[in-house]
Design a protein that fits this description.
five-stranded parallel β-sheet, 7 helices, alpha/beta, about 180 residues, about 20% strand, globular, Rossmann fold
Amino acid sequence: MMKTLILMGSPRPMGNTAKMAEWLTESVKERDMEAETVYLNALSIKPCQACGVCHMPGMGECIVDDDMKEIYEKIKESDCIIFASPVYFFNLTAQIKTAIDRFYAFGPDYKKSFHGKKFGLLMSYGDDNLEVSGGKNAVASFNDMAAYLGVENLGVVHCQGYEPGELERNKDIKAKCEAMAMKI
């Protein structure tokens, strides 16, 4: 059974990005696939220390003892990873960026670690313009990461939404989240 892991980078469990993840999850489960959302803000994940131990012969894993160890296992078991993040200050949130930086432990052969996986991005921002909001930086970061890791890029679903609940009325965004689920 296909497994989708949603890495939630929003600290708002009832926010707009969480609503997008909820819509995607419902659609994934309607297709008899598994989906799990991990709220990164609720975990203790330290930044990468660039110690390089994970790349030493015979190691192959991060020695930092925190909640990222649990995420590593979920990543390995998943077929698809959806990154869900609002744009707070011209890019992805610190919560999701910290987890992404810890992907360093999958190296030095990153492409082998992520072979066959699919990545997607769900993103909301407060401004009504992707360019002005900094969303373009988040999209570029996501696309560069997906290309570097050699994964199938499912694309980006993004929308304007500042206050929690704004997306409830946005049927267009819900349909786009459902369309992404169909690509999984």
